[in-house]
Specification:
The chain is mostly beta strands and 155 residues long. It has one domain (6-24, 33-148): Sandwich (Jelly Rolls), CATH 2.60.120. The protein has helices at residues 6-12, 36-45, and strands at residues 47-51, 55-62, 68-71, 74-89, 97-100, 103-106, 113-117, 122-125, 131-148. The strands form 2 sheets. Strands 1, 2, 4, 7, 8 and 9 form a 6-stranded antiparallel β-sheet that branches. Strand 5 (97-100) and strand 6 form a beta hairpin. The longest helix has 10 residues, at 36-45. The chain is globular, with a radius of gyration of 15 Å. 26% of the residues are buried.
Length: 155
């Protein structure tokens, strides 16, 4: 499988490349190369490719719908590689439960906006925004770049 480069994802999402390779303040920037075989293996099961304090890059795979999610810190930048999905954003998650610090999950979203996602689409879900893959046409493969925003978050 050959997908777009991370550069293409960043440019397509309109965020530029200033944060690629940048970690926390004082952390030395390094270039990370993710070989095609490593990326393909990650998409085969759906797995993180890289996780540092400032951002995370996941090779995501869905065979079925997921749970509604809310991330207090991470903004999700989603680039669809294959398949299709119905994404619900906004609204409320009536049964949201804390699954990790700043992370919440629930069964559904009420009163959200419905979007049909297909190959090539990019969606930016700001931190704090409920989102839910209600339906998927498998395999639904997508990159997620999670950009950490600590503004306004109490530690």
């Amino acid at each position: 499988m050959r997908g777009p480069s991370l550069t293409a994802i960043a440019v397509a999402s309109g965020i530029g490349l200033a944060w690629i390779g940048a970690g926390s303040a004082g952390e030395k920037s390094t270039v990370t190369h993710l070989a095609a075989a490593q990326v393909s293996a990650a998409f085969a099961k759906g797995a993180p490719l890289l996780e540092v304090e400032a951002y995370k890059i996941h090779a995501s795979r869905r065979e079925k719908p997921g749970m509604a999610e809310i991330h207090e810190i991470d903004t999700d930048i989603i680039y669809v590689l294959d398949g299709a999905a119905t994404l619900i954003t906004g609204g409320t998650v009536p049964d949201a439960k804390t699954t990790a610090p700043g992370e919440f999950r629930g069964a559904t979203i009420q009163h959200g906006d419905v979007r049909q996602l297909v190959q090539g689409d990019v969606v930016v879900v700001p931190n704090g925004t409920p989102h839910w893959f209600k339906e998927v046409t498998p395999p639904f493969l997508y990159y997620v770049v999670k950009v950490a925003s600590h503004a306004g978050v109490k530690s």
